Amino acid sequence: MSSIRVMIVDDHPVVREGLVAMLERQDGMTVVGEAADGAAAVQKAIDSNPDVILMDLRMPVMDGVEAMRKIGESIPAARFIVLTTYDNDEYIFKGIEAGARAYLLKDSPREELFRAIRAVHRGESLIEPSVVSRAQDRLAALSRQSPNSELLSDREMGVLRLMATGAPNKSIAAELCISESTVKTHVQSIFQKLEVNDRTEAVTHALQMGIITL
């Protein structure tokens, strides 16, 4: 099996050097590029064609959100993991909107980072546990939804909210006390109603429409 090609984007040299050293020691992962700002990251991504990009958010010249958008325009298959020190709702929303499939804090355990890289490479979404917990608390506190929420059934809304936290079908099934096959049926219905092709697009589109809020 070929190695997962990883690119690191961060304006702090020490952070980049540490990540390179850590990932190069991990079986099945290879660092194929580094960049110190978003503008350099766009060109580096085009040159190196990485599988997964670790992206900081606040950087000089061009921030991570804009870089993800521009890279996504040139490389639609690019998969991003936001790796940052900022965990407020504004940054989380912007990262997801720009295409991030995972959102981790820089003090996350290295095994969590390795797991995120592998999950995102498989096409899954993953959000750091402390971020998930806060998002779930906020979602639970919402008493009203946008009129756009009428597009989906109550059960589909429940599935979509859990999808927004990065929960896989098995966890969603356990949380809602339904079978995994039923979850898959609801997920496909959500895709059809929102006119999207995958979970990340569904969550991003739902956030933009105001159907759900983080």
Q: Estimate the strand proportion.
A: 5-15%
Mean pLDDT: 84
Let me know the number of strands: 6
Ranges with pLDDT <50 over ≥5 residues?
Answer: 142-147
Instruction: Determine the fraction of residues in helical runs and give it as a percent range.
Output: 40-55%
Output the radius of gyration: 17 Å
The CATH superfamily of the largest domain is identified as Response regulator
Cα distance spanning the termini: 37 Å
Question: CATH topology of the largest domain, what is it called?
Answer: Rossmann fold
The strand line-up of the biggest sheet is 2-1-3-4-5-6
Summarize the structure.
This protein has 214 residues and is an alpha/beta fold. It contains ten helices and six strands; from the N terminus they run E-H-E-H-E-H-E-H-E-H-E-H-H-H-H-H.
Strand and helix map with partners:
Blueprint (H helix, E strand, L loop, with lengths): L3 E6 L3 H12 L4 E7 L2 H11 L3 E4 L8 H11 L4 E6 L4 H9 L2 E6 L4 H12 L4 E2 L1 H13 L12 H11 L4 H8 L3 H15 L4 H11 L5
Helix pairs in contact: 2-3, 7-9, 7-10, 8-9, 9-10
